[in-house]
Each structure stands twice: as structure tokens, then as C-alpha cells.
Specification:
The chain is of the alpha/beta class. About 35% of the residues lie in helices and about 20% in strands. It has five helices and five strands, in the order βαβαβαβαβα. It has a five-stranded parallel beta sheet, with helices on both faces. The model has no long low-confidence stretch (mean pLDDT about 95). The structure holds adenosine-5'-diphosphate (ADP).
């Protein structure tokens, strides 16, 4: 007999989300089928060139997910595993679009499991959304192209 634990299963979905795209939104929607709660955590990454202030990114994500129950949005600096512990997440949620993404994510997942015992759940991108990257959207926006088809 399978006895379901009453404990909430929380996942943290960390990223730069600069900007939050339809690809990210799809990972959240599908992640909600697996987890009771998803904490979308905007990482403040000093090494990455950011265009949108973190506060604005959080507001945009909150608007895009306002109709979904079980979603929380926050920001963090430092290690993802520390942010995971702080919000009670036992799992890190990530998306992969390609083999290159997978290799990158596997390294991160191995490292995070080694240092903190936290596992990573990887969801494969919806093929229709796999070409969307935040960096491409930023580039299109910079050159004045319409980006409404790529963001929520
Ligand atoms: P990071 O800077 O941590 O890579 P991103 O904001 O670029 O953060 O992406 C966050 C997560 O979402 C990563 O796991 C990334 O692979 C995934 N992701 C990005 N774009 C897509 C997409 N179009 N479909 C599915 N997953 C995606």
C-alpha cells in the first residue's frame, strides 16, 4: 500500500529570468504537476550582464504567474542550495533545451547534490519553445524587434 506523505513538496526554480520567457512559464506550469509549490527565485548573478533590475523581474514574474496557485517569487544571492534550504525546497527545478543545456545542468546538479544533498529535477523544453532564450529576447528588444511572442 502506498501511503502519501502529507508533507508539502517544494521545488525552487532558480534562474536569471532576464527576462522571464514563455519557455520559463512552461517549465513552471509543468513543474506544478509534480510539486505542491514552486518558488521562482531570481538569482542576482554578478558575473552576468543584466539589463532589467531584479525588482522589475520579480514583478513581471509575479504578474505572469498570478493566476497559478502554488507559485511564489523571490530573489536571492549566493548559492542556490542555500536559497533552496531557506525556502524549504528539497528539489531544484531546471529546464533543458539542448544537449549543451543538459551537460551544463548535469554538472550543476552533480555539484549541488554533492555539496548539499539536494537533487535537481530537469524538465525537457517544449519543442515549440526550445528556441527561446532570454539572451535572444534581450537582443531582439535591443534592436527594437517585437518580443511579445516570446514573453508572457
Ligand atoms: P540561468 O542564468 O540560471 O541559466 P535562465 O533564466 O537563463 O537562468 O534559465 C533558467 C532555467 O530555465 C534554466 O534551467 C534554463 O535552462 C531554463 N530555460 C531557459 N529557457 C528555456 C526554454 N525556452 N524552455 C525550457 N527551459 C528553459
Amino acid at each position: 500500500m502506498i501511503v502519501k506523505s502529507p508533507e508539502q513538496h517544494i521545488a525552487i526554480f532558480p534562474g536569471s529570468f532576464d527576462p522571464f520567457t514563455l519557455g520559463h512559464l512552461n517549465i513552471v506550469e509543468r513543474g506544478l504537476q509534480m510539486f505542491d509549490k514552486i518558488v521562482i527565485a531570481v538569482g542576482v548573478n554578478s558575473a552576468k550582464k543584466e539589463t532589467t533590475p531584479v525588482k522589475q523581474r520579480i514583478e513581471a514574474i509575479a504578474r505572469a504567474t498570478s493566476e497559478m496557485s502554488g507559485v511564489e517569487v523571490t530573489s536571492y544571492d549566493g548559492l542556490t542550495v542555500d536559497a533552496a534550504r531557506a525556502c524549504g525546497a528539497k528539489t531544484i527545478l531546471r529546464g533543458v533545451r539542448s544537449v549543451a543545456d543538459f551537460e551544463y545542468e548535469r554538472n550543476l546538479a552533480d555539484l549541488n547534490r554533492a555539496i548539499a544533498g539536494i537533487d535537481t529535477a530537469i524538465i525537457c523544453a517544449d519543442p515549440a519553445l526550445a528556441a527561446i532564450s532570454s539572451s535572444a529576447v534581450r537582443e531582439l528588444k535591443y534592436y527594437g524587434h517585437d518580443i511579445s511572442g516570446f514573453i508572457p
